[in-house]
Design brief:
- It is a single chain.
- By secondary structure, this protein is an alpha/beta fold.
- Among the domains are: 68-169, Muramoyl-pentapeptide Carboxypeptidase, domain 2 (2-Layer Sandwich); 186-234 and 244-283, Muramoyl-pentapeptide Carboxypeptidase, domain 2 (2-Layer Sandwich).
- Helix content is 32%, strand content 14%.
- The strands form four sheets. Strands 8-11-9-10 form a four-stranded mixed β-sheet. Strands 2-1-12 form a three-stranded mixed β-sheet, covered by helices on one side.
- It is globular, with a radius of gyration of 19 Å.
């Protein structure tokens, strides 16, 4: 996902909320049909070209471009099973990342039992083998420095392939989308997100506005770590970790340092209200024909080096 503006266009919010739910409960078969349709509709789009690559580019590891307009060379796969993590939705083949991110996730997962009391983490999408735009889902996750972490604790058993494709994540938002559901949200969730946000390499954490309400309430007197935690639509089943560009990596375009305070006041109230209205009182569609959808991103819209990444062995 891209760095959020103050508010997303109102008309998109119901769609975004629906997409978040669908991602949490999708099956491999349904996703495969959507991927095939997207390839057929725009076979030369960057998403089709990168989405069909199943192996990484055998090049020096580099995050190239920006989080929502770039690609990834020399990717490393997060093993699908670790002592303190399990990768979900394996059919997507999105457990690839820059080596810095993979190393971070392995270390952070090993600390989760001490932080939360959970056995470990369920890891969602990271990036494709060569990064780039995806055929389904995200706008970001293109340079191997973004990862989705489920808010459902890892079970003690090893999940089989069917569970990993079809098991639903847990919605943490309350039915009115103004706060968390106390039946699902626990203090361990706050401790986990605080620990991630406190990591020096982490540039941003993205959560649903309803979840940020709980984080602000439960943070206590020290809210400095909340500077990195930003509200955004969706993200009620998982939270999104974004690492900074590795030091000295040319061509990697990071974000500006967080300079907006803890975000727990009027700004958050606005996010919550806009989300509530979009779900429960969406605007009526304008009369007349629907505008044609914007074509997906072309390969020319990505940094020039991404052609080399795409063509590499």
């Amino acid at each position: 996902m891209q760095t959020p503006r103050r508010f997303a266009p109102l008309i998109l919010l119901p769609l975004l909320m629906t997409v978040g739910a669908a991602q949490a409960q999708s099956t491999g078969e349904a996703e495969a049909k959507t991927r095939a349709a997207n390839i057929a509709a725009y076979p030369d789009a960057a998403r089709a070209l990168f989405g069909q690559k199943t192996t990484p580019a055998a090049l020096r590891a580099r995050a190239i471009g920006s989080y929502a307009r770039g690609c990834l060379a020399g990717a490393t796969a997060l093993p699908v099973d670790g002592e303190n993590w399990q990768v979900m939705r394996l059919a997507r083949n999105r457990n690839w990342g820059h080596p810095e991110l993979i190393s971070f996730l392995e270390r952070f997962a090993s600390e989760v039992p001490k932080i939360t009391g959970w056995p470990g983490l369920l890891v969602g999408d990271i990036s494709q083998p060569r990064g780039g735009p995806m055929l389904t889902g995200h706008a970001s996750h293109q340079i191997g420095l973004d990862a989705d972490i489920w808010l459902t604790p890892m079970p003690r058993k090893r999940l089989d392939s069917d569970d990993r494709e079809n098991m639903s994540a847990v919605n943490m938002a309350r039915s009115d989308w103004r706060d968390v559901n106390p039946k699902n949200w626990t203090p361990a969730h706050t401790r986990l997100i605080k620990a991630a946000a406190s990591e020096p390499k982490v540039e941003r954490i993205f959560v649903n506005p309803a979840l940020k309400v709980a984080l602000c309430r439960e943070a206590g007197s020290d809210k400095t770590w909340l500077n990195k935690v930003r509200p955004i639509w969706g993200h009620n089943y998982h939270f999104h970790i974004r690492l900074s560009c590795p030091p000295g990596m040319e061509g990697c375009q990071g974000q500006e340092p967080p300079n907006f305070g803890d975000g727990c006041g009027e700004e958050l109230d606005g996010w919550v209200e806009k989300q509530h209205q979009a779900i429960f009182n969406p605007p009526k569609p304008k009369p007349g024909p629907k505008p044609k959808p914007k074509p997906p991103m072309s390969l020319d819209a990505l940094p020039a080096e991404c052609r080399q990444v795409l063509l590499a062995r």
